[in-house]
Amino acid sequence: MRPGEVTGVRSGDLLVVNKGDDTLARVDFAEGAVVATVPLSGRSGHEVAVAPSGREAIVPIYSDAPVGVPGTEGRTIDVVDVVSMTAARTVDLGVAARPHCPVFAGRWLYVTAEARNGILVIDPVTLEVVATIDTGAAQSHMLAISADATVGCTANVEPGSVSVLDLTTRTLRAVVPVAARINRISLSPDGRTAYTADQNDARIAVIDVEGARVERWIDLPAPGFGSALTPTGELVVALRSADAVAVVDTSPNDPAPTRMIATPRWPQMMVLDPTGTRAYTACRDDEVAVEIDLVAGEVTGTVAVGRDPDGIAWLPRA
Predict the structure, then answer these.
(1) Hey, what CATH topology would domain 12-219+307-316 get?
(2) What would the pLDDT profile of 264-314 be if each residue is shown by its tens digit?
(3) Fewest C-beta atoms under 10 Å: which of 173, 205, 286, 304?
(4) Where do the structural domains in the chain lie, given as residue ranges?
């Protein structure tokens, strides 16, 4: 396949967490359908990650309340066999943690633990917690990790800050003030630059990770939410209130105009396929999963999922 070309053959499916139904759905965009749905063990799972084997998915059971609101303090993780699409087991973490965002990186599974102001370091085989990394902030909601698994950055929602973590030493390097409220975060593969959207104003912060500072802001057409970086360095950003996705040139000098792609209502998280030419999101208000051809700049598929779809993950086909 030539660079920038979209092949008609999809190499995987999309997993979608339906918060309103407490289920995990598998979406096949080639078939245009949900091919399987698995009940989760509690209320409610928000995010999902696929294990390196491609045979299991991890869904932390977070809380029955949104971030920053009193509610149940989740302490378990569901393991789903994505080959048979059945619930495999539920693992007790041994502590009330409000586990939220799971990320497999290097030898470990990392999960944000809002109730602990930290990140849980988990053995991916036994699912035992082996360490906790202090984030130095409340509401550490989302986590992004560098390709070499040495740098982690958390988005701390209402403190409006980003915690920079050394995953080798399992220590906090810095807490970077950003805005009054943020939510999600992306990190360049080299771990040098993080991106997080201001939830009140239409702009996204470009963070110098090593310098632990906001380097600059990129204006957006509307407030941003989830984002993902393409292999060419463009940032694909969900604009929930605009019912659109923006494709943003992140270069500081003479950037190309932002491209807008209309979507169903209220897109949230962004995930790319391995080629970086297709983007995926789940749209909360229309209760659909969405496939976007980034080269053509258009939605190429929508599939009805469940109530309040939120976290998504790319699932490679065996």
Answers:
(1) Methylamine Dehydrogenase; Chain H (2.130.10)
(2) 999 999 999 999 999 999 999 999 999 999 999 999 999 999 999 999 999
(3) 304
(4) 12-219+307-316
